[in-house]
Amino acid sequence: MFSVGSFSFGSQFVLPRIPENIVKMYVSKFRPTVVQESKLTKDAMRTMGPAKVELPSPDKYLKKPSKESKPLEGEFIYLVILSKKPPVPSRTDNPLIHTKRDFIKTATAVPKKQQPMWVDTNTGHKQPLENSGLVPKYIKKKDYGKVPAYLQQRNEEKLRAEEEYSKFVQEQREQRAPRRLPDEERRGVLIKTRWYDENNFIYLTPAGYFVTLLRFRVNYRFIELQTKKKMDNRTE
């Protein structure tokens, strides 16, 4: 129980303390195995060589000729040559000419014409004149100046594609264009349309309008006839 000024508070008014929720740090379940493996590798590599080596006895010390190469143990085998060398020829032997060359053909053959060369450096480097570009090689061909076959084929395909496209465009225009009616069908459509317009005009116009319109037409016709008569009298 505690008091502030003239007021006193009991223990029932004290707020309970909320315990702090401390989140533990993540620890892998493989941590012990990793530690054990690292210790095993460290212990094996702490010294040069294996950790436990059998020490040599004092009797087996290193002797002076111990590092010299020793001959192989076993019986020596002599090399036996089965094929003997040919005997030395005597003075009276006349050996034949063992060659496949035809000396007669070589002697009677026409000498080969030397290939024309041209020198391109001051040190004497040379190369064939035919591939140097100084010989009119391509202008003497039969098809020189003509359009190659693959270009002709490509141009033909291009023209064919343009014709097909123009034909397709013309067909589309013909489909979209209004259809031209024959004269009889056109006359029937006009008569039907005119009858429909006049019928609507008659049914939608009041009756008094027709009376006045009829009088106007009669008067107009009468005036027109009178003027025509006067004009005829003047001409006479």
TrEMBL record:
Q: What keywords sit in the KW lines? A: Cell projection, Cytoplasm, Cytoskeleton
Give a yes or no for keyword Cytoplasm in this entry: yes
Q: Where in the cell is it found?
A: Cell projection, Cilium; Cytoplasm, Cytoskeleton
Taking every annotated instance into account, which residue ranges of this chain make up the domain Enkurin?
A: 145-196
A Pfam family cross-referenced in the UniProt record is Enkurin
- Work out whether the entry's keyword set contains Signal: no
GO MF annotation list = calmodulin binding
Q: Which GO terms describe its cellular component?
A: acrosomal vesicle; axonemal microtubule
Per its record, how is this protein called by name?
Answer: Enkurin domain-containing protein
Q: Which organism is it from?
A: Amphiprion ocellaris
